[in-house]
Amino acid sequence: xxxxxxxxxxxxxxxxxxxxxxxxxxxxxxxxxxxxxxxxxxxxxxxxxxxxxxxxxxxxxxxxxxxxxxxxxxxxxxxxxxxxxxxxxxxxxxxxxxxxxxxxxxxxxxxxxxxxxxxxxxxxxxxxxxxxxxxxxxxxxxxxxxx
Amino acid sequence: xxxxxxxxxxxxxxxxxxxxxxxxxxxxxxxxxxxxxxxxxxxxxxxxxxxxxxxxxxxxxxxxxxxxxxxxxxxxxxxxxxxxxxxxxxxxxxxxxxxxxxxxxxxxxxxxxxxxxxxxxxxxxxxxxxxxxxxxxxxxxxxxxxxxxxxxxxxxxxxxxxxxxxxxxxxxxxxxxxxxxxxxxxxxxxxxxxxxxxxxxxxxxxxxxxxxxxxxxxxxxxxxxxxxxxxxxxxxxxxxxxxxxxxxxxxxxxxxxxxxxxxxxxxxxxxxxxxxxxxxxxxxxxxxxxxxxxxxxxxxxxxxxxxxxxxxxxxxxxxxxxxxxxxxxxxxxxxxxxxxxxxxxxxxxxxxxxxxxxxxxxxxxxxxxxxxxxxxxxxxxxxxxxxxxxxxxxxxxxxxxxxxxxxxxxxxxxxx
Lengths: 147, 416
Known about the structure:
heterodimer, A: alpha+beta, Alpha-Beta Plaits, 8 strands, B: alpha/beta, FAD/NAD(P)-binding domain, Enolase-like, domain 1, 5-stranded parallel sheet, 12 helices, 26 strands, globular
């Protein structure tokens, strides 16, 4: 758990969307990419794909923007999380995330984001190409977080 | 070392937390006039409309302060600050400080109109304001001002079944946030939910027998039994002024990039501090929650010797009408001297516009779909030029490393 991050290797992603399906299924109970935390950007012309998830920003803008005290830093997972009970659905965090990761649930009317499935991210578990892996930060090679 | 913080809002609490996070041994004392623990003034309209329980406004309990080792002295009014002696006199005690952080916030402005002896006029800035509003049961409400608070207050009262009229002095609603065209769209949305909108008029007189029965504007009379003032916030800096601390042109306490005031031991942050806009560099008092927290971090870090510079205030405001969200980021069309060009688009009932000066993105306004607003906001904040954005997108390797940029560019910048 501690020190582990979601490692995304875009070279290996085939854009199958399994991660989006499994994410929405385990977190929302239905297979709908729109309710997925992780999203895959597909570059059709280049035949390349790039999944985007939470960049776990240091001094996260979503956390600073939250006026309801709903977003807090989870020290063991190493990323910001949303407390559903406390979220008032103001969308301040949605427009603060420079990666467009902070999502808004149309029915529950609250913010949702990747919370690493409490330490066992299912996108990584079900990614059959090895594009998404969950392991220690030292092995980090991706440029995630760079604008 | 002892740090005293005046104010128990977003800025004051963030400053205290940041100091305790980095140096738990530093003594931190928070002074405040109100006795409540930290609450969110931004959520007050949600509570007014009945969408949110009052208890959920509170973001901390008294125990949270104690657990963090923060000493509190709430319910005390600061009477005087002596910057030579480094002391603060309240109505109950005298406190000495090594460093002082002013996070005194702002108060809702009420213009000098007649009829102030009447009951029935309110502001919406504090919990006490909210409680007073909730106690008063009106039928017809006039909201003076159409900024974010005015818009939310009007909708909340509408939701409570009142007949509501917004009176805005400028010729459009939300004049500080939106350009004319999106403002007109928002106005129509308000009208669709039954809120009357009057622009280009000011409330001049409040009239009635012991309680408000009507207000007079420049051109007419509006019957009402409640008036909510939402014409803006003024920085609360009379204490600083008394102490001889310099104020800036917007009326806020003048600070440098380290949030240091004209006195070497006094920092200021939040609504009371005058900083600068991240894009235009012009002096501003930001009055926004995220700005207050970031400024407080910077003030706190510098206070304990960890030198940090403030990036500048970035305007981000989000709201909702008719269950449709809207957002305004960065600058408006008329907020800079140089010519700003506008790119706009609509799909279905969604509207967006992006503002550019010749080199880079400076602002965005959107109604409906806000999906990529954050990405555009990030681009505005990073001060990346259009050329740099294109270079990045044309490079096959770089394009892959910032897919969010490609997404937003495809949606908004495709026709450039």
